[in-house]
Design goal:
Layout lengths: L22 E7 L2 E6 H17 L2 E5 L8 E2 L2 E4 L4 E6 L5 E5 L10 H4 L1 E5 L5 E5 L4 E6 L9 E6 L1
Length: about 150
Amino acid sequence: MMMSATVMPTMSVRPVRRAAVRSTPVAKADGVAKGLSLGMMAGLASFTLSMADANAATIKMGDDSGGLAFVPAVTNAKAGEDISFVNNKAFPHNVVFDGDNVPGGVDADAISHEALFNGPGETYTLKLSKPGTYEFYCAPHQGAGMQGKIVIS
């Protein structure tokens, strides 16, 4: 009686070579360079981009140099997305939606924030669910042209 043998292929295992990780100095603290690897920086950039998509659209009240403006003057957002107004410079400011320049059926008074923001960083956040164009202004600075627009898709 003949017996057959099963032949198992043999495998050799070689160590895997890893690429060298390079660090790029990004800051010095107490004379010691702190760095991030290129991979970590790429991951951080990717994470930052995905967070920007997930975060609220932000509109500054007053530009960085103290000008009477909403920055950006035109903001695009999706229906239901958070939109935050942040008091920046040259306050007091508020956010008043123009009843004649919002989509039909939207109560401009209900989405306005007529109380004045008096300190830096004060924030008003809202969600607009009806697609269309929403025009707004800052009541104390309307005569100076402080107005903006949100386009909801």
